[in-house]
Amino acid sequence: MDTIRIEDAKNYVDQEVRLGAWLRNKRGSGKMQFLQLRDGTAFFQGVVSKEAVGEEIFAKAKALTQETSMYLIGTIREDERSPFGYEMQVKDLTVVGESDGYPITPKEHGTDFLMDHRHLYLRHIQPFAVLRIRNTIIAATYEFFNKEGFVKIDSPILTGSAPEGTTELFHTEYFDTDAYMSQTGQLYAEAGAMAFGRVFTFGPTFRAEKSKTRRHLTEFWMIEPEMAWMTQDDSLEVQERYIAYLIQAVLDRNQYELDLLGRDKELLQSYTQLPYPRVSYDDAIKLLQENEFDVEWGVDFGSPEETFLANHFAKPVFITNFPKEIKAFYMKRHPDRDDVVISADLLAPEGYGEIIGGSERDTDYDYLEQRIKEQGLDLKEYSWYLDLRKYGSVPHSGFGLGLERAVTWITGEEHIREAIPFPRTMNRLWP
Ligand code: 4AD
Ligand code: MG
């Protein structure tokens, strides 16, 4: 007899198999028990009939409590009424781990309660579906960049610099000096691009954001490709192909999870149509002003502006060439204008806002030195970075995709905390 996982049930119709599973819930009568089972691969039902199993096993089934783990033996049957399509006609069951007073009962619980019990809540349908889609996005990221000849570079997490601004730093002691939790792997990726041509970093990044929004985590994972000999236009093409690849991978591999979440698959499919529109920051400001937004040239977009812009195009949209003053020091100057940089943010539709930030990088030593000073950064911390401009500097571009922003959007979740196994936010460091 084969031991299977629930997702393999379709291959075992009318066969007797063994299965390890947990009980989510159950209902039934004095003659039948319907066990809602899960094993981490899918959810399905085990049917226990008193007539078929006898008094003793039926009594065991009837006494099962939520989240008890067990081995079941039974026959897989097709079950047209369930969304999963299969169930198990149970013949025998053995309890492995008892479960007493499981806190997350089938009734409605508030978000704080669920997040306080995140270590257990992971077992439930919504986190299951979202985090399996996250897993696909991670796998597809490696596939995409490996296919395109990128080398993965691992950037350090403990750093001495603050390339994305000094107000959002997590400080820590590092023996007798100071260290910061990395805000971005980009500067290291740039060093990597000069060594390997095309690289990507993928790791946790940290921002001491004092914003309690549905888009901000203090610890999030970022994918940062960096490409030598590539202009910003080349980079935008890589970005849109990458996003379309991720969405297609999820559509191909996670139908079940998308259905559990009730995500609109046709809408998702529409986002694989390329290209995405490119709209300059100047035009975006005009468009906002024409639509009654109280914005002036030079401001950064907030969430209402981002939502409007992406919904206006009903697609992900690149907003290009932002004002220099609101962007990081390394972004390339515009060839004819002093007030904007060669950059783009990719805004996701449906109110999800910025998912990618990127730019071409300036290659001029003196200009970068001046920008570092202007932004109040410590020149000493960047001397190694400036070396990259001293020894064979080349045009290069890169971008950063916030993994959880992408997962939140693709899964259609309300809040970014759902898109990471154990979220870290301004007021959550536990569990
Ligand atoms: O726009 P950001 O700050 O860009 C950078 O860090 C560049 N160094 C990237 C690069 O060019 N290599 O951040 C990039 C992305 C954002 O578009 C967003 O998706 C995500 O990272 N992000 C956050 N995600 C969750 N919580 C936060 N607090 C985030 N801050 C940025
Ligand atoms: Mg940004």
From TrEMBL:
GO biological process: asparaginyl-tRNA aminoacylation
Catalysed reactions, as listed in the record: tRNA(Asn) + L-asparagine + ATP = L-asparaginyl-tRNA(Asn) + AMP + diphosphate + H(+)
Chief localization: cytoplasm
InterPro entries linked: Aa-tRNA-synt_II, aa-tRNA-synth_II, aa-tRNA-synth_II/BPL/LPL, Asn-tRNA-ligase, Asp/Asn-tRNA-synth_IIb, NA-bd_OB-fold, NA-bd_OB_tRNA
Keywords (A to Z) from UniProt: Aminoacyl-tRNA synthetase, ATP-binding, Cytoplasm, Ligase, Nucleotide-binding, Protein biosynthesis
GO cellular component: cytoplasm
GO terms of molecular function: asparagine-tRNA ligase activity; ATP binding; catalytic activity, acting on a protein; nucleic acid binding; transferase activity
EC number from the UniProt entry: 6.1.1.22
Subcellular location: Cytoplasm
Pfam families on file: tRNA-synt_2, tRNA_anti-codon
Highest taxon of the lineage: Bacteria
Similarity annotation: Belongs to the class-II aminoacyl-tRNA synthetase family.
PANTHER family found in the cross-reference section: ASPARAGINE--TRNA LIGASE, MITOCHONDRIAL-RELATED, ASPARTYL/LYSYL-TRNA SYNTHETASE
Subunit relationships: Homodimer.
Name the record gives this protein: Asparagine--tRNA ligase
